[in-house]
Amino acid sequence: MIKKTIIVQNKLGLHARPAAMVVGEASRFGSEIHLNKDGLEVNAKSIMGVMMLAAEMGSQIIITANGEDEKLAIQALEILFASKFDEE
Amino acid sequence: MAEKNLVLKGVPVSPGIAIGSAFLLHRDELQVEEEEIAGEQVASEVEKFKRAIQQTKEELFGIRRRVARNLGEEQGRIFDVQLLMLDDVMTIDQTITAIQERRRNAEFIFWENLQKAISTIESSDQVFFRERASDIRDLGRRVLHNLLGIKQLTVAGIQSEVVVVSQDLSPTDTAQMHRRNILGFATDMGARTSHAAIMARSLEIPGVVGLKDATLQVKHGETIILDGTKGTMVVAPDKRVLEHYRGEQQKYLQWSSSMAALKDLPAKTLDGYSIQLAANIEFPDEADSALDHGATGIGLYRTEFLYLSRADLPTEEEQYEAYSAIAERMLPDAVTIRTFDLGGDKFSMYLKGQPEANPFLGRRAIRVCLDCPDIFKVQLAAILRASANGNLKILFPMISGVEQLRQAKEIVSQVQEELKARGFSYDAKIPVGVMIEVPSAVMVADSLAREADFFSIGTNDLIQYTLAVDRGNEQVAELFDPFHPGVLKLIQQVVQAGHRASIPVAICGELCAEPLAAMLLLGLGLDEFSMSSISIPQIKKVIRSVTMDEARAVAAHVLEMETSQQIKTYLMEQSRRLYPDFLPVDVV
What we know:
Chain A contains three helices and four strands; from the N terminus they run E-H-E-E-H-E-H. Chain A is an alpha+beta fold. In chain A, strands 1-4-2-3 form a four-stranded antiparallel β-sheet. Chain B has three domains: 6-26 and 155-254, 3-Layer(bba) Sandwich (Glucose Oxidase, domain 1); 39-148, Enzyme I, Chain A, domain 2 (Orthogonal Bundle), CATH 1.10.274; 261-578, Phosphoenolpyruvate-binding domains (TIM Barrel), CATH 3.20.20.60. The longest helix of chain B is centred in the N-terminal third of the chain and has 30 residues, at 42-71. The A-B interface holds A 11-13, 15-18, 20, 23, 40, 42-43, 45-49, 51-52, 54, 56-57, 87-88 and B 81, 84-85, 88-91, 117, 120-121, 124, 126, 128-129, 132, 136, 311-313, 349-350, 352, 374.
C-alpha cells in the first residue's frame, strides 16, 4: 500500500465536475483507492464519496492505493490534481 | 368549500389573471420504515432496488432531454451529476451489499446510506457544497418513489387545468409539465429572476412569487385567483369576487390580443421618428418570444444563468454555442451580451468570496470580471468567436469610472490577440458599451463616452444607488421611485453625454416597460428601449400614439417639476389625453 498527501489547488475545489474526473481516473485502476480528508475516508471510485469530502481549495487530502497498479494509480491522481482539473 | 376571500400579496412577475383550482406541489419528507426481510426474499429485494434505479435513470434521461431542448444544453447538464450517482459504488453497490448482509428492506438501507452523504455534505461551511446536498436529496426522493411504487404528485401528472402552488419551482418540475394545463404559477419564495418567474413569462401565463406562506393557506383543489399584474392571490373567492375577476380577465385578454396585432408594425412616432424596441432575455430560447413580440434585437442578454445552478464553470465552447445560436437567430438584428453580473443577489457558487455585509456595494459585476480575468477571458473569447456568426455587442455591467472601462477593454484586446493566434475569426469592430447604473458613471459620462461605443442605462440599479434604497427591504421599498426628479435628471445627463460623443444611448430596466414612462423617455432622447418581451407591444403602442415634438415637450416640462407625485400626475394626464383608449397596466 502506498500513501501520498496532496493539496487541492483549483479555485473551486472538488465540486461536481472535478469529483467526476477523480472518479473516472481512479476507476481505470484495479487497486483499491481511498481519499482521506480530516479523518473522513471515502472510496475514490465513488462520486458520492468524493463529493462528501466537500474539499475546497487548500484542503489536504491523503490518497492511499492498495493493489498491483497502486504506483501508477497514485501517479495518475497526482497529475490530475496538479492539473487543477483544467479549470484555469 | 368555504368561501374565504383570503388575499395574499406577493411579487408580480408575469401579467394576466388566472382563475382555477390550486395544484399544491408538496415536498414532504417520505416516511421510510425499517423492516426485516426473510433470507429467501433477499434476492427479490435486490432486484426491486435495481429496477427502481433503472426506472429513475430513464426518468432522469427523459427530463434531461426535455430541459436541454427547452432551456439549452447547459441547463440540461444539471442532471448529469445525478445520473452519475445512479451508477455509483457507494449509492448502489453498498446498498445492495447491505441489503444482503443486514437483511433489511431496500428503501431503508438506501435512504440511510444517502442520509449519511447528505449530512456530511451539509455540514460543509461552503454554500456551494451545501447546495449539492439538495441535489442528492432530490435524487434520493425520486428513487424512493420508484421503490415504494408511489406515483409522485408531480406536475407531470396534471391532467386538468390548474394553478400550480408550491414553495418554489425547480427546472425539474417545470420540465415535466404539460404546459397546456398550467394556468399560472404561485410560489412562496422567489424573486423576479427565479425559475418560476422566468417560466411564467416565457409561457405567458400569470405568475406571482414571494407569497411567503401560500402553500399553507391554500388547500389542494381549492379555487384560487392569481393576479400576475398586481401580484395578488385570492384563496376561495366568493361569487362577487369571482365575477369581478372574470371581468378583469376578459379585459386583460382583449387588451393583450389588441397588443398582439401590433407585432409587425414599426415603433415609429406619428411624425416618423423610429425607436429600437429590443428585448431583455436570460435564456437563448427566449429569442423566439422576443421575435414573436416584435423585438428588433436583444438589448440585454443576461449571461449569469450560464454560471448559476451548476457545479462547474461554463466552457468557452459551451458559451460559444449559446451566443452563436442567439446571434444567428436574431440576424440581422443586434444582440447585446452583458458580461456576467455575479455577486449582489446572484450568488455564484465558485467565485468564492468573503460573506459581505453590503453585497450590492461589494464584489459584483465588473469588479468580479476584473478580479477573475481567467474566467472573464473565457467568456470574452466565446462572445468574440460568436461575433463571427452574427451581430453582437459587448456590455460591461456596473462600471463606476473610466479606469475600469480601460482595463476591461484591454482584456478584450488581449483576448482578440489570443484568438488571432489560435486561428479564430471574430468581428474586430465589435461595439463595446458601458452599462450606466452607478451615479459616478453618470458624472463622468463624457469621459466614458469617448472610449465606449454605446451606453445602456440600467434603471433598477441606477435608482437603487442614486436613492440609496434597497427595494428588497420592505421598510424602505416605497422610496424606490423611478420618477424621482433626481433619477430623471441623471438619465437626461447620460443621454446628453452620449449624444455629444455621437454614441447611441439605450435604456434597459423595468422603467422603460412602464407605459407612463415611455413618452417621457422618448422625449429625453433615448435611442433604444430594451425590456421583457411581453411589454414591447404596449410600449410600441405608446410610441405610435405620440409625436416626437409632444414627447420632447412633455420631457422638458417634467424636468422642471420638483416632486415625483407632480410628475406622475402630469404624465397620467398626458397619457389620458394622447392615448385615451390605453389600458394602463402596472409595471410588469
